[in-house]
Write a structure and sequence with these properties.
By secondary structure, the chain is an alpha+beta fold. It contains 3 helices and 4 strands; from the N terminus they run αβββαβα. α2 runs parallel beside α3. The mean pLDDT is 95.
């Protein structure tokens, strides 16, 4: 099994257990080699409530972990504008470590609760 297939399997397993609602949307994380993306999804309606990514931070100087923290803060600000304060964290099959943890910490600093 490749690394990608293993991550997809872990993500499917997690998605069987958690789901986003209008009151508590699901905070989805996607990590690429170059950057990180996050969005809040209401699974009941199939609707994205808020999103943030590293492309909006350009030009950005710093490490990828600092970049992830900034994306988390930007997502929290966008969520606050949409009226969301609580969410469910979906790490997307990634380990809760490094950039994924930094994004979560940045979102918490910005005011999201999960």
């Amino acid at each position: 099994m490749t690394t990608y297939e293993a991550r997809r399997r872990r993500h499917r397993r997690v998605r069987g257990k958690i789901s986003g609602t209008a009151e508590r949307p699901r905070l989805v994380v996607f990590r690429s080699n170059r950057g990180i993306f996050a969005q809040l999804v209401d699974d009941e309606r199939g609707h994205t409530v808020a999103s943030a990514d590293w492309l909006a931070l350009r030009p950005f100087s710093g490490t990828k972990r600092e970049q992830a923290t900034a994306v988390g803060k930007a997502l929290a600000e966008s969520a606050r504008a949409a009226g969301v304060t609580r969410c469910v964290f979906d790490r997307g099959g990634y380990l809760y470590h490094g950039r994924v943890k930094a994004l979560a910490d940045g979102a918490r600093e910005g005011g999201l609760e999960f």
